[in-house]
Task: structure prediction
Amino acid sequence: MTYLSLPIKPPLARLLFADRVSMARLMGSVLLSGLSLLTNSGVQAAEKITYTRPSFSPFSSQMYDSLLGTDRFEKPVWNLHETLNLPKWLDLSVEQRTRYETMDGTFRAGSTGGDQHIALQTAVWLQAHLGGLRAGTEFLDARALGVDTGSVLNNTHANTADFLQAYLAWADQNLFNSGIGADVIAGRQTLNFGSRRLVARNAFRNTINNFTGGRLRLQDYDKWQLNVFVTTPVQRLPNAAGDILDDVHEFDEENPNTLFSGAFMEMYGLPYGFTGEAYLYHLDEGDDPHVPTRNRRYFTPGVRFYTRPVEDKFDFTWETAGQFGTVRASAAATDGRDLNHEAWLHHIRLGYTLATAWPINVAAMYDYAGGDDDPNDNRNGGFDTLFGARRWEYGPTGMYGAIPRSNISSPGFSVQVAPRPNLQATLIHRAVWLASANDVWSPAGLRDRDGASGTFIGQQTDLSVRWDVNSSLNLETGWAALFKGEFAQQAPSAPDPGDVNYFYVQSLLRF
Result:
């Protein structure tokens, strides 16, 4: 889960690395900007910074910054490396998360009653490094216990015993004495860019997106950072609900017919305290024997500007992304009809941090993600969130996940309070409409092609509390309620019109 960083007034390093945001243009433009900055940069040494506040969103493999030469956050107090007296050139850590989830009521088409299960996630990371060279692997086991044939179950809930990462990497903190840091990673890896709305290493979901390919990162430490990558997404297997329910094991595989690539540019120290990012992603998708696809072939350029929360000041975020290309009308092997794809995403947020004994941030926000206005024409307007995450702004995912980043128009507000530096409570309330009355509410599988059921999905309240006991133990609990509107109650195949309550409690241990 992603949280605002409170208390405020962060040092420069936290401004640069704790929560990045993005602004976008065409790939050539981004690359040219990066090269221009590279040639005009002065010589400066790599910055060495120690971060003290633990974070439980990324795993240890994501906490280490090769260009800073240090971890972004405090090492676990219960530390396997020190306990086993391992050599300095070898890193080892283990993370185990247990989450109990229960849901009273349902919003999915044709379903009845509630559901519950226990989500278990265990990860082991091992990395060896010699000078600027690194070789690492991460093993992930994600399981859903207590599920049955009536449960919502797919490969976002379970992926047993597989290798999430296996990579070789090289880094130089001062390439050719230019003051520029360079990092190259090749192999299976996770990606995590900017706002995480489009490309993310999943934090709340039980399984995690990963990719196989190469990534180059260039960084002028207090000015800009450029990531360029070419990968193929890894398919989580098995993907049939019956096989997952029976704990069938199958190693994940890359889809050789799909290419995901892009460029991501971050710019620091802009006027008025803004940070900006520009990105361009390209997805070229083809069918695979395991997974039929909709042959999504489009570009996604986007821009984002933001300021971080500072005590007694306003903070602001704005992000816009577009998608342009083609997509098949369906994933059926016999369907060869390509639709022209044009869709938009907008996010805006205005917050203010109160100067109180307990730091409190209040914010108003609005999100729009396009829907398809006419299911019978040759166009598609439904925004595709690609490989993004959504828990921190749209509520818990897991077995719930009622709000998608597609076909929605949703204003809302949030309140976050931190009674202690290691204790945070967050309240988010949203009203949610369909952006298009004719398009699908995707998590529910509900659609009224005639648009006769209205557009109001309902209102959602999301309350969560997180306590970082220390840098090895984290406890968290949360509640989300969906108060159904006319569409959720009246659309064809809609379930019982009663409201939905979801609750979870989890522990996370890191060694």
About this structure: The mean pLDDT is 88.
